[in-house]
């Protein structure tokens, strides 16, 4: 620790003695600060790589070896002193990562990218729903076509870009739309699980045993999809961006905000609907006959209904600063509330 402080003091003294540009170059060229695999970098967290654990020399960099993604100091240094092509390289990096993460949505046709129609989607990823067998994919499914880890890296690049260029509209719009990129697979899995539950009811004796588990899985997927929007709002700067409090960028992301808000409210409506069906089937499976002495309602079920009602009300409040709630969301939420009465 003492050695680290001494080295930092030497760097600061050198910066004071030199001109501003020379001091920046000195700092950026320092292997101690800027080596892509160094665990002793000055900025908090060390030199985390843009491509995940165990990789090396993979971030966009300048000719003198300045790795922007690995250097918080570099991100606030004037581009002329370090990495003049940072904004362009980071934008290309983010775009490529989003495409690689969502191969189920896009097909490369020559030099252009074509969006696949939604009915053709067949998502395969760890934790996703297998609609053929009605189960969850394991940790290493064959031919995965969606990667949330790559989306995390895309977000990392976009945030670095916005530190270099705080008024970059395209980066802000792409950052907001990452909410949709993350929530769509969860919504798809929930919808497929609900379809599987309906098919199970029609397949003959014994098949109905798969109906309730599939609906419970659907609830989990829709709940996870809603949580993605909540996690975005939990970040103060991101919340300010989409709530209109960022003077540079908020006015430029209104269309993207409307898009992810519509996704969120539809996910919430589907979560409420799946919860309602789940509770109704659970009630039938554990039927309480009030005319029989000694029987009592299922307390676990009543507790789950009350908890879900409170959760949905909280999730509705998260959307309230943006616009009035659409009918399809408030209607489903009111059904769950009535069920708990």
How does this structure look, described?
The model is unreliable at 1-55 and 68-81 (pLDDT under 50). The longest helix is centred in the middle third of the chain and has 33 residues, at 169-201. A two-stranded antiparallel ribbon has the order 1-2. The radius of gyration is 25 Å and the shape is globular. It is built from twelve helices and four strands. It is mostly helical. Helix 1 (2-17) packs antiparallel against helix 2 (20-28), helix 6 (148-164) packs antiparallel against helix 7 (169-201) and helix 7 (169-201) runs antiparallel to helix 8. Strand 1 (106-109) and strand 2 (112-115) form a beta hairpin. 34% of the residues are buried. It has a domain at 166-340: Up-down Bundle (Methane Monooxygenase Hydroxylase, Chain G, domain 1).
Brief sketch in words of this structure:
The chain has twelve helices and four strands; from the N terminus they run αααααββββααααααα. It has helices at residues 2-17, 20-28, 31-34, 72-75, 86-101, 148-164, 169-201, 211-233, 236-242, 254-285, 299-319, 327-340, and strands spanning 106-109, 112-115, 129-130, 135-136. A hairpin with a 4-residue loop joins β3 (129-130) and β4.
């Amino acid at each position: 620790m003492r050695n680290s402080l001494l080295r930092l003091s030497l760097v600061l003294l050198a910066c004071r003695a030199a001109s501003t540009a020379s001091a920046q170059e000195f700092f950026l060229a320092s292997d101690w600060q800027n080596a892509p695999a160094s665990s002793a970098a000055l900025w908090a967290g060390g030199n985390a790589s843009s491509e995940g654990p165990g990789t090396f020399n993979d971030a966009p960099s300048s000719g003198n070896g300045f790795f922007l993604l690995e250097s918080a100091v570099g991100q606030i240094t004037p581009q002329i002193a370090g990495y003049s092509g940072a904004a362009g390289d980071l934008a290309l990096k983010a775009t490529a990562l989003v495409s690689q993460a969502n191969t189920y949505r896009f097909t490369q046709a020559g030099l252009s990218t074509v969006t696949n129609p939604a009915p053709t989607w067949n998502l395969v990823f760890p934790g996703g729903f297998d609609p053929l067998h009605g189960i969850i994919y394991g940790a290493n499914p064959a031919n995965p076509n969606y990667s949330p880890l790559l989306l995390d890296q895309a977000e990392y690049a976009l945030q670095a870009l916005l530190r270099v260029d705080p008024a970059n509209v395209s980066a802000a719009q792409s950052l907001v739309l990452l909410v949709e990129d993350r929530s769509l697979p969860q919504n798809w899995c929930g919808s497929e699980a609900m379809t599987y539950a309906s098919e199970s009811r029609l397949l003959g004796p014994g098949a109905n045993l798969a109906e309730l588990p599939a609906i419970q899985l659907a609830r989990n997927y829709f709940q996870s999809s809603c949580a993605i929007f909540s996690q975005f709002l939990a970040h103060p700067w991101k919340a300010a961006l989409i709530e209109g409090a960022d003077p540079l960028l908020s006015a430029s992301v209104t269309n993207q905000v409307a898009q992810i808000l519509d996704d969120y409210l539809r996910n919430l409506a589907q979560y409420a609907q799946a919860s309602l069906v789940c509770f109704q089937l659970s009630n039938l499976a554990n039927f309480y006959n009030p005319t029989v002495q000694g029987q009592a309602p299922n307390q676990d079920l009543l507790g789950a209904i009350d908890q879900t009602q409170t959760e949905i009300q909280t999730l509705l409040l998260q959307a309230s600063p943006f616009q009035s709630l659409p009918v399809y969301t408030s209607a489903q939420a009111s059904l769950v509330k009535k069920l708990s009465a």
